[in-house]
Amino acid sequence: MPARTATAALAGLTLLLVGCYPVQPRAATPERPDVTTVSAEGTSVEDGGDLVMGLSADPDQLDPTTSSSLYTRYVMSSICEKLYDIDAEGELVPQLATALPELRDDGRTVRIPLRTGVEFADGTPFDAAAVRTSLERHLTKEDSARAAEMGPVKEVAMVDDRTVELRYDQPFGPITASLADRAGMIMSPTALEELGDDFGNAPVCVGPFRFVERVPATEIRVERDPRYYAADEVRLDSITYRIMTDANIRAANLRSGDVQVVDSVSPTSIESLLREPGIGLLQTGSLGYQGITFNVGNADGVGEPPGEVDSPLADDRRVRQAFELSLDRAALVNSVFDNWFQPACSPISPETSFATKASNACPPYDPERSLELLEEAGLETPVQLSMKVSNTPDTLRLAQAIQGSVAKGGFEIEIEPVEYTTLLDAQTRGDFQLLQLGWSGRIDPHGNMYSFLATGQSSNYSGYSDPTVDRLLKKAARQVGTAERAETYGEVVRLVHRDDPLIYLYRQRNLTAYSEDVVGVSTYADGVVRLSRAGFVEGDD
Amino acid sequence: MARYLLHRLWQSLVTLFLASVVVFVGVRALPGDPALALAGEEADPATLAAVRADLGLDQPLVVQYGAFVKNLFRGDLGTSIATGTPVTDLIATTLPVTLWLSLYALTVAVVIGIGAGVVAAVHRGRWPEWIANGFTLIGLSVPSFWLGILAILYLAVGLRWFPASGYVPVLEEPLRGLYYLTLPALVLGTALAAVIMRQTRSSMLETLSADYVRTARAKGMRERRVLSRFALRNSMIVVVTIIGLQLGGLVSGAVVTERIFGLPGFGKLTLDSVFTRDYPVIQAVVIITTLAYIVINLGIDVLYSLINPRIRVGGKA
């Protein structure tokens, strides 16, 4: 008996501790206009210098074909140019190509014109043959992480020395966006020949900087490449990417002047950082999202056909709708993240050209209706659920706020914080009822929707399956015009709101802090911090 | 002695074998697989499967273990799953950092600890002792992560006396190298300094009240000579033992300190490899740590018998 009392007391205490994060009503999110570049206007910029960036995670292999870490893109952005890039407005622009791809044969042939007079860092000339070698490596290398992103390519052909063609049986709309990411990074054929699988240990590409060395788990150094075709635009001698996984340590180093740029600033520490003189902030909306996944059919692991899941949420979409109706997104997101992040209701960022009225639609906050729906579904309230979340402080605060919000709508959720790797494992195996995680986002909606929502796809963690959604997603990938595709994706969002396998919750902002000693640092919607045109302000030391 | 050493060597091998089995099975029992930890949210099953096959993670456990041991005997510790770097390279770059840090911290601890201990014993009951005691209390009770954060906040960010992070190899640039290590070494050494101070103070007090010291004083020996000749020397036997016992603590404390100061040491490697489920690195780290403990213990036992012939190893010798 005493043991039971103790357990009850402990449970009560835990409830008290985790259950009391207040969701205070806050003013609506203030306008936070994107600041994408530290302007060099009005300052004279020094030639030379070593810029140190505090990187929040260690990149994986510096190999465009096999890399799967987000942070590899940061480092690669200074040493490995891509066929396409995005600009400050989030539009696709040519980089190593000279124009956007020319689509022929109803989009089944994608013709890419290339820059001339360009050399790789090892002196190898950049030409159509080099591009073909890289793209074919992406398609054929056994452990390639790019093959799926490039779609069902039938053939990579050289039209002439400065033109490459991708040939498909069916049009693949997302290809330009893929070529503005790692699939579009072109590797030196000479280096590939020499290094093979070890290319990532000494990558050679076309870029403003070239790889110098990597001290494992510590830092990666790159230096100015005199062969670069626009070498006169580059000011820095070198860049050191220093790995600092702890957000407080990154902030302390920025304050002390040991580093000049840091990524992934936590919203809760921005205010104090910005009070510091000489520190500025870059911010852009993210293409990704954070959300809550319901396990509706992930019984045998992701990628397998949907199975039976024993949960009140799985059987009845009304229960999931009720859950969404009881989420006060604005209050939740603003109170937890100090008004820095934006509530989100779909996988399509409202700032992209794929946003439509349908994709921007947001279910209202209506806890009364939620209770009604639960009653219709024949459930007794509170409905008990358990939610797995990552054990970081920010996520825990969010989870507690969610707990408080949905209580009014008739839900009682138990929070299960687990370490990140374990969370990924649970997500993959389907070992959860509710799970909170996000997606870093792609420029093209295909990359944010297809593998998450189509039946049996690689990231369909909820185990969702709907033939109409499958058909629409495939249709959108085959469509070529942005407007038509946006229309189709809008329809998918409408269906997702009906079925709620996944609730989109908020969109992070990419927050990058910098020392005002440097200019020319930029970060765009893809979240990659670009340092290749940065430089130190003259007169500062 | 030779027989004893042989026996200990055999024991060590058994210990190493057990440690390797435990860590091998243990890390694989953790939820989350390395391929997934590496791919993170971008997981793609085809890629994951290819990565797993490439690493031999799809083989039965016994086969994996066999390959691991076979490679171990060839001096091959495998390749890091996360970065593709040979594990031997990782260890070769991180181990010196931790060794220098520990050595520096030990020096700091010994200098401060013995100095403060002597002062406290000599000035018993007066203000120098209060200060020394206060220091001990702080050193023992403040956790090193907190002390580290304070040090960064005030000494690195506020006063800008020291860098907040970074590392320069000590052998390449000794002065700058030591400069970068100073703050972490102070933080790491503080707790040990407090232990040494307390020990020095109590054993000196004990010695100072011993009969032979009183005799020496009565015969007119100068106080300074009494302190150095008798008190300090005799207290050192205990202090050295304590330092030996604390060495292990120094290494584990380095894990925390390295993380705070972003030092690319063995401790940080250990932590990172656990978070990314980097099996080959975790295995190598555990094997090497086990080996180090075995060698240190064996060394201490042998040293004891050399220093003090009354302590015999192996029963009869």
TrEMBL record, chain A:
<dbReference type="GO" id="GO:0043190">
    <property type="term" value="C:ATP-binding cassette (ABC) transporter complex"/>
</dbReference>
<protein>
    <submittedName>
        <fullName>ABC transporter substrate-binding protein</fullName>
    </submittedName>
</protein>
<feature type="signal peptide">
    <location>
        <begin position="1"/>
        <end position="27"/>
    </location>
</feature>
<dbReference type="InterPro" id="IPR000914">
    <property type="entry name" value="SBP_5_dom"/>
</dbReference>
<feature type="domain" description="Solute-binding protein family 5">
    <location>
        <begin position="91"/>
        <end position="459"/>
    </location>
</feature>
<keyword id="KW-0732">Signal</keyword>
<dbReference type="GO" id="GO:0042597">
    <property type="term" value="C:periplasmic space"/>
</dbReference>
<dbReference type="InterPro" id="IPR039424">
    <property type="entry name" value="SBP_5"/>
</dbReference>
<dbReference type="GO" id="GO:0015833">
    <property type="term" value="P:peptide transport"/>
</dbReference>
<dbReference type="GO" id="GO:1904680">
    <property type="term" value="F:peptide transmembrane transporter activity"/>
</dbReference>
<dbReference type="InterPro" id="IPR030678">
    <property type="entry name" value="Peptide/Ni-bd"/>
</dbReference>
<feature type="region of interest" description="Disordered">
    <location>
        <begin position="26"/>
        <end position="48"/>
    </location>
</feature>
<dbReference type="Pfam" id="PF00496">
    <property type="entry name" value="SBP_bac_5"/>
</dbReference>
From TrEMBL, chain B:
<dbReference type="InterPro" id="IPR000515">
    <property type="entry name" value="MetI-like"/>
</dbReference>
<keyword id="KW-0813">Transport</keyword>
<dbReference type="GO" id="GO:0005886">
    <property type="term" value="C:plasma membrane"/>
</dbReference>
<feature type="transmembrane region" description="Helical">
    <location>
        <begin position="231"/>
        <end position="261"/>
    </location>
</feature>
<feature type="transmembrane region" description="Helical">
    <location>
        <begin position="134"/>
        <end position="157"/>
    </location>
</feature>
<comment type="similarity">
    <text>Belongs to the binding-protein-dependent transport system permease family.</text>
</comment>
<feature type="transmembrane region" description="Helical">
    <location>
        <begin position="99"/>
        <end position="122"/>
    </location>
</feature>
<protein>
    <submittedName>
        <fullName>ABC transporter permease</fullName>
    </submittedName>
</protein>
<feature type="transmembrane region" description="Helical">
    <location>
        <begin position="177"/>
        <end position="197"/>
    </location>
</feature>
<dbReference type="Pfam" id="PF00528">
    <property type="entry name" value="BPD_transp_1"/>
</dbReference>
<feature type="domain" description="ABC transmembrane type-1">
    <location>
        <begin position="95"/>
        <end position="300"/>
    </location>
</feature>
<keyword id="KW-1133">Transmembrane helix</keyword>
<keyword id="KW-0472">Membrane</keyword>
<dbReference type="Pfam" id="PF19300">
    <property type="entry name" value="BPD_transp_1_N"/>
</dbReference>
<keyword id="KW-0812">Transmembrane</keyword>
<dbReference type="GO" id="GO:0071916">
    <property type="term" value="F:dipeptide transmembrane transporter activity"/>
</dbReference>
<keyword id="KW-1003">Cell membrane</keyword>
<feature type="transmembrane region" description="Helical">
    <location>
        <begin position="281"/>
        <end position="307"/>
    </location>
</feature>
<dbReference type="InterPro" id="IPR035906">
    <property type="entry name" value="MetI-like_sf"/>
</dbReference>
<dbReference type="InterPro" id="IPR045621">
    <property type="entry name" value="BPD_transp_1_N"/>
</dbReference>
